[in-house]
Amino acid sequence: MTWHTEELVGFDLETTGTEPWEARIVTAAVVRTVPGGAPRRRVWLADPGIRIPEQASAIHGITTERAAADGRPAREVADEVAAELCGHWDRGVPVVAYNASFDLTLLGAELARHGLPSLGERLGGRTPGPVVDPLTIDRAADRYRKGKRTLEAVSAEYGVALADAHDATADAEAAVAVARALAGRHPSVAALAPAELHEQQIRWYATWAKDFESFLRRKGDATAEVDGAWPFRDAPAASRGGASREGASR
Question: Which of 67, 71, 75, 159 has the smallest count of CB within 10 Å of its CB?
């Protein structure tokens, strides 16, 4: 048995924007999956307390008016999502998030914004994890493949159906399916224990960030900076420039 044939938990956020230290949660999904079994889903709609830009609404379909009318207070949603993730980590189950450094950093920022315990504090001071990020793994395992690395594109590459992209539940389930398919295609990834895979992704992401920063500078952006921290970005200033959600092929 390897990690990709066992229980995995998918996680995704849809938000008000692309900067994780400023954007707010609009929808969230945490999906528990076991091969051969029906997924167990928890979903949230939050009232972010600010207007949702039209560009964001056009992507995920949630307007300011709907969030205000039907959404729960953002503080409650952030608290419950964090508790759900930490409950799975306490059981040793990996959490799968596509472009994890965006979603987890944003969740951490929301917890701080509302004066709530951080993920680490909820885990008794342990580092949150293990995390499985199919984007980071795919970049390392198939480094020279041409084309986009969006969830839609990578899902297509690995034969995963994604009929409702940018729906938090659909994206969380697709991320898990892609993670399983990645491990199936790349035995060296499947062979790693979850904790080892987590540590490898830290290195893989840092390598990608350094390479991407060099690429941006060669293209003329002499001040480009790409945050190489994973799965949590270190500080607001570190997420500027090339490390935006767009730059990470979200």
Answer: 159
Please report, in angstroms and rounded to a whole number, the separation of the first and last CA atoms in the chain. Answer: 31
Q: pLDDT class for 246, splitting at 50, 70, 90? A: very low
Confidence tier at 236 by pLDDT (50, 70, 90): low
- Cross-strand bridge partners of residue 173: none
Neighbours of 170 (CB within 10 A): 19
74-90 vs 100-113: helix crossing angle, rounded to 10:
120
Residues 6+ apart with CB under 8 A from 59: 14, 166
Query: Helices 194-218 & 134-141, crossing angle to 10 degrees?
Result: 70
**Where is 45: in which H helix or E strand?**
strand 40-47
- pLDDT score of 237: 55
Rounded to 5°, the CA angle 59-206-218 comes to 80
Residue 77: C-alpha distances to residues 47, 71, 111, 241 (Å): 9, 9, 10, 29
Q: What is the pLDDT of residue 187?
A: 97
Q: Which of 93-97, 111-115, 198-202, 244-248 has the lowest mean pLDDT?
A: 244-248
For residue 210, give the H/E element and its range.
helix 194-218
